[in-house]
């Protein structure tokens, strides 16, 4: 896919005055931020992911993104690193120490489960994920009508 068509997909004509474009972008950013910082909120989604681990369509619709969960692993690993490297003699507040001790491992646990379930599903069902990736990449976004053959095909696969 060329850069021009990729940019046209992300920034359709009139995107700056499209409320749907802004709301979708803000929602995706908020979900990734929540997934990175407070992953524990998605425990219900984690349970649903484990239950439907053999259904790629269900996994693809779950809240958050793989990037958000991977960033959660990295951010919370950094939090544990702060906990380990800050000696207790430096008056690390007890509340912060308890928070980091409980919060970071629980976030890491939820994130790891999501990433492992998604990776196993992608390995076990590559054809289904290839179709979902095609639809995600080529489907017309933000209410824009399809313009190319790939966009029409992706719209048909979506239904």
Describe the protein in words.
With about 160 residues, the protein is mainly α. About 75% of the residues lie in helices and about 0% in strands. It has helices at about 5-10, 20-35, 45-50, 55-60, 65-85, 95-125, 125-140, 150-159. Helix 7 packs across helix 8.
What's the short story on this structure?
With 159 residues, the chain is mainly α. The chain contains eight helices and no strands. The model has no long low-confidence stretch (mean pLDDT 81).
Outline the secondary-structure elements.
Elements: H1 3-10, H2 19-37, H3 43-51, H4 56-61, H5 66-85, H6 94-124, H7 126-138, H8 149-158
Helix pairs in contact: 2-5, 3-6, 5-6, 7-8
Task: Name some characteristics of this structure.
mainly alpha; 159 residues; 73% helix
What is the helix fraction of residues, given as a range? Answer: over 70%
What letter string, H or E per element, gives the SSE order?
Answer: HHHHHHHH
Number of helices: 8
Largest sheet: none
Q: What number is the mean pLDDT?
A: 81
User: C-alpha Rg, in Å?
Assistant: 20 Å
Cα shape: globular
Amino- and carboxy-terminal Cα gap: 23 Å
Quickly give the structural class: mainly alpha
Strand content is: under 5%
Low-confidence stretches: none
Tally of strands: 0
């Amino acid at each position: 896919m060329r850069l021009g068509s990729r940019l046209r997909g992300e920034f359709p004509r009139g995107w700056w005055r499209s409320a749907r474009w802004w709301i979708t972008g803000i929602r995706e950013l908020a979900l990734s931020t929540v997934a990175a910082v407070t992953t524990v909120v998605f425990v219900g989604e984690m349970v649903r992911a484990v239950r439907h681990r053999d259904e790629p369509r269900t996994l693809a619709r779950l809240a958050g993104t793989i990037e958000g969960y991977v960033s959660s692993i990295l951010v919370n690993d950094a939090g544990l690193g702060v906990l380990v490297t800050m000696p207790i003699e430096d008056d690390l507040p007890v509340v912060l120490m308890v928070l980091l001790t409980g919060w970071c491992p629980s976030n890491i646990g939820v994130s790891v489960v999501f990433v492992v379930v998604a990776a196993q599903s992608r390995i076990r069902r590559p054809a289904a994920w290839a179709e979902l990736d095609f639809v995600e990449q080529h489907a017309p976004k933000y209410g824009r009508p399809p313009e190319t053959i790939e966009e029409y095909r992706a719209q048909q696969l979506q239904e």
